C-alpha cells in the first residue's frame, strides 16, 4: 500500500511528531510505502519528497510567538493558512500525481497547511483518513480551556463560536480568537466531515466530544496510540529512587501550580522536565523563592535523556487541569514500569486505572494530590506492583502490533468502500 502522510512538522517537536515517525516506521516495516507531505524547515528530517513540501510561512519559525515579530506579509500568510492555501492544494496535487497513492493519512494540518488539502484529495479521487488527537476541530485554542479564567470550558461544543471570542481564548486576543473561530466555522461550512472518509481518534473521551459536536458517528474510529519499544535505550536499569517526575509543557493548563504546591513544605523530591512558551516556568520559580521545597527544574531534554529519569523515578505525575489527550508521557512511564498519578478527568482515566496502574486525584485538589504522593512514597512495593500492571497493560492494549492491525483494517476497508 502506498500512503501519503500529512503533518505540519517533519521533525520531532513533541508527542504528535513522535507518533508521526513511529507510525511511518511501523507501516514501512510492514511493507508499505509512506510518503511525507509537510512544510519546509531547517529542522526537518531528510526526505526525497521535500520539493513537494510547502514553503514556510516565514522562515523557520515553529511557534506562534515567533510569527508575531514578523511583517505584514507573513501575518497575511499565517491567516491564509488558517483558512485556505492554494499552494498547499497545488503541491499536494503534484505529489499525488507523482506517486499515485492508495490513501492519504492526515495528522496535523490546522493553522499551517489548511483544509485545502482535502479538496486536493477529493479532486484526485484519493480517500482520506484524518487522525484527531486534540480538540482543534471544535475549540479555537484546541484545549477546552479558558486561559484567563484557567478552567475547563465546553461552551463552543454545543454553542456559538462567539464564546471563544468573548473569552479571548487564543493568545488573550479578540483579534486572534476571531480569526481562529472564523477559520473553524469556514471548515464546518465547507463540509470538512464530508471530505474525510474516516477519523481515527486515540481517546474514547475525545471521540465522544466529536460525536456530540456533530461528527458522523460511523466515521469515528477509536484506535489508541501505541508505544514504540524500539525507542527505549537498551541496558536501562529500572530502579525506584526517591523522587517523582513531571514531563511536559510548563503551562497553566498542565496543573503545575497544583503540583508544586503539593510538594511545598515537604521533604519529597520532584524533578520537572519541560519548557514554557509563555514564561510560566519563571512565575513558578518566583512563587517558590524563599519557600521550603525539594523541586528541581531541569529544562527541556531529548527523549534519550528523559527515559533515564523515568527509569529511576518512583512514579510520574500528570496533574493536567484540561482534557489532556492521551499524553505520551504516560505510555513512556508504563514502558519503564512506572505508575502514574493523574487528574481524574478526560482521557487520563482511560490510561491510569485507579489502584491498578496508578492513582487518580481530584482536579486542582492539592490536598488530595499530596495524599496520593505520600501514599506512593511511603510504599515502594505499591509503586513496583502498579508499575508492573502498567507495563502489562501497555503490552496488551497499546502495542505496535495491535495498533497496526487496527489501522491496516481501517485503511483496507476505507479503500475498498471508496472504490465501490
Report on this model:
- This protein has 420 residues and is α/β, with parallel strands linked by helices.
- It has 18 helices and 14 strands.
- The chain has helices at 15-29, 64-67, 72-83, 86-99, 116-123, 155-158, 162-166, 174-189, 192-195, 204-213, 256-263, 280-288, 303-312, 328-335, 348-351, 366-377, 380-397, 400-418, and strands at 2-6, 33-37, 103-106, 128-131, 145-146, 151-152, 198-201, 220-222, 243-247, 269-273, 294-299, 315-318, 340-343, 358-361.
- A 6-stranded parallel beta sheet has the order 2-1-3-4-7-8, with helices on both faces. A 6-stranded parallel beta sheet has the order 11-10-9-12-13-14, with helices on both faces.
- α1 (15-29) links the parallel β1 (2-6) and β2.
- α14 (328-335) packs across α17 (380-397).
- The radius of gyration is 22 Å and the shape is globular.
- It starts with a strand and ends with a helix.
Amino acid at each position: 500500500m502506498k500512503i501519503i502522510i500529512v503533518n505540519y512538522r517533519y521533525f520531532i517537536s513533541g508527542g504528535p511528531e513522535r507518533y508521526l515517525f513511529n507510525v511511518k516506521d511501523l507501516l514501512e516495516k510492514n511493507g508499505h510505502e509512506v510518503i511525507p507531505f509537510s512544510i519546509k524547515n531547517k529542522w526537518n528530517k531528510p526526505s526525497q519528497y521535500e520539493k513537494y513540501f510547502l514553503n514556510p510561512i516565514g522562515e523557520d519559525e515553529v511557534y506562534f510567538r515567533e510569527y508575531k515579530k514578523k511583517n505584514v506579509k507573513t501575518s497575511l500568510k499565517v491567516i491564509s493558512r488558517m483558512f485556505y492555501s492554494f499552494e498547499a492544494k497545488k503541491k499536494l496535487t503534484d505529489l499525488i500525481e507523482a506517486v499515485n497513492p492508495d490513501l492519504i493519512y492526515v495528522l496535523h494540518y490546522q493553522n499551517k497547511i489548511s483544509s485545502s488539502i482535502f479538496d486536493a484529495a477529493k479532486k484526485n479521487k484519493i480517500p482520506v483518513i484524518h487522525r484527531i488527537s486534540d480538540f482543534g476541530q471544535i475549540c479555537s485554542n484546541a484545549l477546552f480551556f479558558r486561559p484567563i479564567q484557567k478552567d475547563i470550558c465546553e461552551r463552543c461544543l454545543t454553542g456559538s463560536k462567539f464564546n471563544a471570542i468573548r473569552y479571548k481564548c487564543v493568545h488573550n486576543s479578540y483579534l486572534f480568537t476571531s480569526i481562529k473561530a472564523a477559520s473553524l466555522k469556514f471548515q464546518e461550512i465547507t463540509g470538512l466531515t464530508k471530505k474525510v472518509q474516516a477519523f481515527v481518534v486515540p481517546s474514547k473521551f475525545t471521540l465522544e466530544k466529536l460525536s456530540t459536536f456533530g461528527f458522523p458517528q460511523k466515521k469515528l474510529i477509536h484506535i489508541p496510540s501505541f508505544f514504540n519499544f524500539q525507542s527505549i535505550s537498551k541496558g536501562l536499569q529500572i530502579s525506584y529512587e526517591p523522587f517523582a517526575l513531571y514531563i511536559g509543557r510548563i503551562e497553566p493548563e498542565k496543573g503545575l501550580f497544583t503540583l508544586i504546591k503539593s510538594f511545598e513544605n515537604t521533604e519529597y523530591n520532584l524533578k520537572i522536565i519541560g519548557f514554557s512558551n509563555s514564561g510560566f516556568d519563571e512565575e513558578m520559580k518566583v512563587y517558590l523563592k524563599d519557600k521550603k521545597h525539594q523541586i528541581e527544574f531541569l529544562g527541556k531534554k531529548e527523549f534519550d535523556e528523559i527515559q533515564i529519569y523515568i527509569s529511576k523515578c518512583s512514579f510520574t505525575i500528570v496533574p493536567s487541569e484540561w482534557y489532556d489527550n492521551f499524553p505520551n508521557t504516560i505510555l513512556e512511564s508504563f514502558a519503564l514500569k512506572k505508575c502514574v498519578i493523574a487528574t481524574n478527568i478526560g482521557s487520563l482515566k482511560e490510561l491510569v486505572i485507579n489502584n491498578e496502574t496508578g492513582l487518580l486525584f481530584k482536579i486542582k485538589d492539592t490536598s488530595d494530590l499530596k495524599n496520593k504522593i505520600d501514599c506512593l512514597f511511603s510504599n515502594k512495593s505499591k509503586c513496583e506492583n502498579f508499575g508492573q500492571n502498567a507495563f502489562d497493560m501497555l503490552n496488551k492494549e497499546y502495542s505496535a502490533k495491535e495498533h497496526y492491525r487496527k489501522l491496516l483494517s481501517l485503511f483496507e476497508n476505507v479503500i475498498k468502500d471508496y472504490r465501490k
